[in-house]
Amino acid sequence: MQRIGGASAALQTAANTSHAKDRAERRKEKRKTIERRLCCLRKKRYKLTIKYIRSYTSSMSRSPGRKQENHKISRELFVLTYGALVAQLCKEYEKDEDVNACLDRMGYSIGIRLIDDFLARSAVKKCRSYSETADMIAQVAFKMYLGVTPSVSCNSVTGNEFSLILDKNPLVDFVEELPAERASLCYCNLLCGVIRGALEMVHLAAEVSFLQDRLKGDAVTEIGITFLRKPEDRRHRRNK
After folding, report:
1. Rounded to the nearest 5°, which phi and psi values hold at 81?
2. Region Disordered: what ranges (predicted)?
C-alpha cells in the first residue's frame, strides 16, 4: 500500500510539474504574442509618423500659396509630432546611442525619397563643388523644408568639411533642455539622416553629425558635413 501511495504521489507530482510547465509555456507564448503585436503597432506608428513628416516637408515646399496661420498650425503640429516620436523612442531604448541611431535611420529613409521632391520643385542646377552643395543645402533645402537658412562655413583646407550653423532650429521650439539622464541624446538627429540620405541619392557619400547643440548648452546649433571623397579625387575620376 505504501508503494502504491508513493507511486500515486509521484504521478501526481509529475502531473503537477507538467501542468506547471504547460502554464509557463502558455504564458511565454502569450507574452511573445503580445510583444509581436506591440512591435507591429510600433512599426505602424513609426510609419505613420514618418509618412506625416514626409507629407509635411513636401507641403513646406508648396507653402507660399497657403495662409500664414494654416502654415503656422501645420508647423507646430509637425514639431509636436516629432517630439512625441523622440519621447516614444526614449521609452523604448535605454541608451541614447540607440535612439540617435534610430532617428538617423528614419531620417535617411526620408532623405532618399525627399531628394526627388527637392530636385523637382527647386529646379536647381548641378553643383560643381562641395561648397556649392553645402550652400544649396543651407540656402535652398533648409529654407524650403524648415523655413530657416543656416550659415555655412568650411572647416578644412581640403574643402570637404562644412558646418551648417543654425541660429534657430524649428524642431526644438517646444523643448527647453534635455533631461540629465539623456545628456548624450541628439534630439534632432533625424536631420543628419535626411541630409545623408539625400546626398547619397545624388552619389555623394557623406558623414553628417551634430557638432554643437543648444539643447546641450552650446552657443549655437551646428551640423557637420564631411564629404568622403576629396574634390581632387572626383576631378581625377572625371579625367580618366
Report:
1. -65, -45
2. 1-31
